Fold these 3 entries.
Entry 1:
Amino acid sequence: MAAALGEEEVDNDDYYSLLNVRREATQEELKSAYRRLCMLYHPDKHRDPELKSKAEQLFNLVHQAYEVLNDPQSRAIYDVYGKKGLEMEGWEVVERKKTPAEIREEFERLQQEREEKRLQQRTNPKGIISVGIDATDLFDRYDEDYEDVPGNGIPQIEINKMHISQSIEAPLTATDTAILSGSLSTQNGNGGGTINFALRRVTSAKGWGEFEFGAGDLHGPLLGMKFFRNLTPQCFATAQCAMQFSSRGIRPGLTTVVARHLDKNTMGYIQWRWGIQSAMNTSIVRDTKSSHFTMALQLGIPQSFMMVSYQRKFQDDNQTKLKGSVKVGFFGTVLEYGAERKISRHSILGATVSVGVPQGVSLKIKLNRASQTYFFPVHLTDQLLPSAVFYATIGPLVVYFAINRLIIKPYLRAQKEKELEKQREDLAGDIATKRQEAEAAVLLMQESVKRIIEAEESRMGLIIVNAWYGKFVTDNSKKTRKSKSD
């Protein structure tokens, strides 16, 4: 991100050049230059209307430059990112005693937050599209059970399930927000949909409450409430209760979660769920700049399990992550490993291989594009076949590197060239503007010199017409140097 930012941070408003001082100038040097230019460009010192207008424009620019360079934090931000860095929202909450390196990190964080807010806009849209693919015929057809099955020899790959969900938020007041969400699901020819409406109110700085109503042809009407509360600065709790109305009657449900900060990077969770699938779950999550670790234990009906997962975060421009997890329970054992990587400014691509008993082997491909998620679980085989594991691991890597080299990199290169061309056009316009400002400054200085000459002539003062600086060399000095060299 820093590399991409460096190409966009070119700023032609050089405040140091405007004040005619060096970049290492002290506060006293800045103040002296500011006072001198204010006397030169002050609009009241010019009688000609055109020169007065130009003087006013230059006077405002000088004042703006001094306001920035006179403040230590603003000057540090300007030195790193130029004028665009000063336009970033959020600097008012940043500690003022920051080094240039810390200011660079803060700028990147604030820019990322601004881009995310701009993408999500006020409605904060979120969506998930999941397409399940059955590709078991690629591997299971070579088993003995498939030897005598007639066919044309071409493996059959089918889409056996699909799920689409979308939600938007609409702020009503400073404390009230309306949330509308819906989903459609289908599996093996059967499916349905639901729609939900929720109203969330922030009750205080420590908590909020939410009321939810839903309807659909899968489970029937739904009424629910959810509450969040900060118990202490290190601990919070949530409670969610719901009543599902169906042809079998009313099915109530209750879920509570208590979480606490164990240290700066570690959270502990305890969850109790009562209803159709009652369970108790406890987990510890440790998230640092370079890793993410989770350990969870659940006791419940119908599933009890223990899970451990670890994710390694690499500090590169592509935000590469490697992850792995092991899950053991009454349903069997599942081993998962995978990776994800940033492929563009707002897109992250990931792939995970799942190997389990009795689930078999699956490949899960996920693409996050801003606030939209596209998920493609591909079921390869119901058995533990080494060939399926091998192709599920190597196949995505080969496809990724091929697409990255043939499509993604050429596309990003073309976008970069367009941005550079736009910067050249903007730079040409800025140069023309700066040239006009320089010509105006010369005219103003000529006008100022003219006034000084007239004042000196009126009182018979001294006027220096020409001046030479340096050491005058005579013929005698030349001869002396020549004799010494001989």
Note: The chain is about 35% helix and 40% strand.
Entry 2:
Amino acid sequence: MTRHLYIVMDLSKSMLEKDMKPSRLTVAVQTVEAFILDYFDQNPLSQLGVIVSRGAVAEKITELSGNPNKHIQTLKAHSNNVEGEMSLQNSLEVAKSSLWFVLLFVFLITDSSFWMIFCEILFFIDCDRCA
């Protein structure tokens, strides 16, 4: 089964706290790195991308792909730049706008009227925003 997943990484100033050794940021980056490697080990056909949130802005730093090394290297390169606050809402909006095709896929393969209606509504919302 193919899965599509975005990891949202907090790169706000709170990640510089020293409540974890050596810092929250270092522990978080190491944890995400291990997760990415395990994810692709268990889901070799799946796609993953990384979104970072700092300064109340969310930024997609890697597109969906099946290359774990690319995600890890890009995350490490961006993890040196922390600032401001995290925005969960902006992060979810970036992920939603990048995963719109997954909803269409669900719409095409399901026969449940609830899902068809739900996906159709989301499809029209996204189309209205793009027009």
Note: The two ends are 33 Å apart (CA to CA).
Entry 3:
Amino acid sequence: MPKKSPSTMMRRWYLSPRFWLNVVIVMIVMEALVLLLNNFGSHVVPNWFYAVGWSFGNSSDSPDGFGPDEPADSFLVHYEDYCRKSLLPNESSIRELLDGRTVYNESELCHCISQNLVGGFGVNYTATPSLESIISLHPELKPGGRWLPSNCIPRQRVAVIIPFRDRHEHLKALLYILHPMLQRQELDYTIFVVEQAEPEIFNKAMLMNAGFQEASRVAAFDCFIFHDVDMLPEDDRNFYVCSPTPRHVGAYLHNWKYQLPYGGLFGGVTAFTRAQFELVNGFSNQYYGWGGEDDDMLRRVKAKNFKISRFPPSVARFVMIKHEPDDGNPFNMRSSLGYRYRPNHYSQEGLSTLVYTKKSDEPLPLYRRLTVALPPPPKNFKGYSRRTHRSVRGDGRAVHGFAAKFTAVLSVVCLLLFSLNL
């Protein structure tokens, strides 16, 4: 009996019913996991799920010396020592605050740990008051959402950059929490909301790059906080300041039982100094739709031999607001590109190749609103809408089909496998 060639066996393997049965099983399991996590979160997911694989990398490599299991009281002692030595205002800020004077006494600086801090506070975003009520609560704000303490010199000037489109309820909830929290931390801060006017498909990373460029023209900020609009802080001891290396501010979520779901997580809320952000060449501009940009940024950080700074989960606690899938932010079927380590690429693409058009710059009562138009996605872009179950292309066409869903699910599988092994 003649031997079957390997190519013939491969073709028959791909056509076998068992292979397709396995594919269907994988799709069902993945969909079930996504539904379980999105709809029920930590109330249903058992502890062993976090203990096996998903908590990989939960140990901190923070260069600040803050341990991942450090209690809040111990952390505050270490933070105060770090703050006194490292968090000092820049000369430009000093000149502005002291009418040209550059010499000051240490006693004039704001306390590292303000007496106004309350620690952990409950977050109930469904009970957020109206925007008008929030504005009335903050007559102390300067136009464009800036505040600074009047009785001391703030140690850092901070730009909070929020990429945004059509999430007004989330933005309102975030502003309601951020303004009083940052004031209790005694920071000189300005909130920038960078809104995408066009194209239809969202590009969060490019908006953050644009926000950095525009904020840099406003003032000499010491620290840039890149903040997802659906991430709500729960503790004002999670100081919105920068570290000697890029910092993962929003590391521990209520939705994930305040553990890192995987070691390669670096998104939600991150902090960079100007020098750090320029050194890694900002975010990539390539990731239209959902997914890829945070993983790409992590590899940019690693390519420059930075370690990730994280405060311990005893203070660095967040709630992530659940929301319906957005057709304008489809799952990027090529998001797994963010997991590839491409050190030569990072210096050639990112902040240095950013292109956008500023449509407006409005100093509103609670924030500075920047509206920008971005270039359209490439025509070969392929996304997948979880709401309509349609594939979305760069030219705007939406096509329904099994292939789109199959590709999207396999992409998620690949992302998870990469996450657990990197």
Note: Residues 17-39 form the longest helix (23 residues).
